[in-house]
């Protein structure tokens, strides 16, 4: 293990702390937001920057010590592909189970039967 | 395109993917990657029941960077909502009428909606002509729809010509 210059330490720490803070805020959102659908917003969005920050930190650190390292980007690619899809499936499940939404949710659906699994 | 490389973008993606997995670029890794990038699409092509053509690859790259910027904005946006005192958000369920068709463009649009500020795609209408969106904090649903249409759907329509 080689020693890094001080500025590199600072830059890498910045990205890792940034990522960790966003991951934390995302988890906090699960606790604080009012209903199931609103809670979904927090982890889908904040994990992308949360993991992104840690990945950038990791790329910088390993590129400066062991030579160029980019395979962390694969994690980002998989996250981009899977985060919206899992959120979509959870939202879909919540919708079909007709979970209660917080009372200030406004419903602008004009054709609710399009999104229902009931045959009528 | 032709018989040997039926899906050039897919092959290119596989090659890049292989090199990232190896975490280095060497002659051996590139050769093996090229072989895989040719064989895998040939083998899996029969299982693909959709045909998608990328008409404007450069616009696709531009779309990717716009999306990246919006994801970062979206992260700060949602962090602000979470850290603010609760009760003053205005969630809504909005119907988004689709002007594009085809499973790949619609999937990309739905994923984009989920990753960008304040909206999540919850369900595709039965007839495939609209997406149900859950928005976390909106004042004017029409403005949200117009923004998605202008910013993303118009570009996707141009990229895929659908």
Characterize the overall form of chain B: globular
Low-confidence stretches of chain B: none
SS element count, helices of chain B: 5
- Separate helix tally of chain A: 3
Give me the oligomer status: heterodimer
Domain tally of chain B: 2
Q: Using the alpha-carbon principal axes, give the shape of chain A.
A: elongated
Rg of Cα set of chain A? 20 Å
Total domain modules of chain A: 1
Query: Helix fraction of chain A?
Result: 55-70%
Strand content of chain A: under 5%
- Alpha carbon gap, first and last residue of chain A: 68 Å
Portion of residues in helices of chain B? Answer: 55-70%
Mean model confidence by pLDDT of chain B: 83
Average pLDDT metric of chain A? 83
Structural class of chain A: mainly alpha
Based on CA atoms alone, the radius of gyration of chain B comes out at 19 Å
Which chain pair shows the most residues in contact?
Answer: A-B, 50 and 43 residues
- Which structural class should the secondary elements of chain B be placed in? mainly alpha
Short description:
The complex is a heterodimer of chains A (120) and B (162). By secondary structure, chain A is mainly α.
Task: Write up what this structure looks like.
Chain B: Pfam families: MNHE. Chain B: Its main location: membrane. Chain B: It is found in: Cell membrane. Chain B: It is a multi-pass membrane protein. Chain B: This is Na+/H+ antiporter subunit E. Chain A: Pfam families: PhaG_MnhG_YufB. The complex is a heterodimer of chains A (120) and B (162). Chain A is 68% helix and 2% strand. With 120 residues, chain A is an all-alpha fold. Chain A has one domain (6-115). The longest helix of chain A is centred in the middle third of the chain and has 31 residues, at 36-66. Chain A starts with 5 loop residues before the first helix and ends in a 13-residue tail after the last strand. The model of chain A has no long low-confidence stretch (mean pLDDT 83). Chain B folds into two domains: 8-47; 57-160, no CATH class. In chain B, a hairpin with a 5-residue loop joins strand 2 and strand 3. Chain B is 57% helix and 11% strand. In chain B, helix 1 crosses helix 2, helix 3 (57-83) runs antiparallel to helix 5 and helix 4 (103-115) crosses helix 5 (141-160). Chain B is globular and about 60 Å long. Chain B has 162 residues and is mainly alpha-helical. The interface between A and B is large, with 50 and 43 residues.
């Amino acid at each position: 293990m080689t020693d890094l210059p001080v500025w590199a330490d600072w830059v890498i720490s910045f990205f890792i702390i940034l990522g960790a803070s966003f991951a934390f805020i995302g988890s906090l959102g699960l606790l604080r937001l009012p209903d199931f659908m609103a809670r979904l917003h927090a982890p889908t969005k904040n994990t992308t920057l949360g993991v992104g920050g840690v990945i950038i930190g990791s790329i910088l650190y390993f590129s400066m010590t062991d030579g160029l390292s980019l395979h962390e980007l694969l994690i980002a690619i998989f996250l981009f592909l899977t985060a919206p899809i899992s959120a979509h499936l959870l939202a879909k499940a919540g919708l079909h189970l007709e979970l209660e939404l917080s009372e200030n949710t406004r419903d602008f659906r004009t054709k609710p039967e399009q999104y229902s699994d009931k045959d009528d | 395109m032709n018989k040997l490389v039926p899906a050039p973008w897919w092959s290119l993606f596989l090659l890049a993917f292989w090199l990232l997995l190896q975490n280095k670029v060497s002659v051996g890794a590139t050769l093996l990657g090229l072989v895989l990038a040719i064989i895998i699409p040939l083998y899996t092509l029969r299982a693909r029941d959709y045909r998608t053509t990328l008409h404007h690859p450069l616009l696709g790259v531009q779309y990717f960077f716009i999306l990246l910027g919006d994801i970062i904005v979206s992260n700060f946006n949602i962090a602000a909502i979470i850290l603010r005192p609760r009760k003053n958000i205005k969630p809504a369920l909005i119907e988004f009428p689709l002007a594009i068709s085809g499973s790949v463009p619609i999937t990309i649009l739905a994923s984009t909606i989920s990753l960008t500020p304040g909206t999540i795609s919850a369900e595709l209408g039965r007839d495939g002509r609209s997406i149900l969106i859950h928005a976390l904090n909106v004042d004017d649903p029409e403005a949200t729809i117009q923004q998605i249409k202008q910013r993303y759907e118009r570009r996707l329509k141009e990229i895929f010509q659908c």
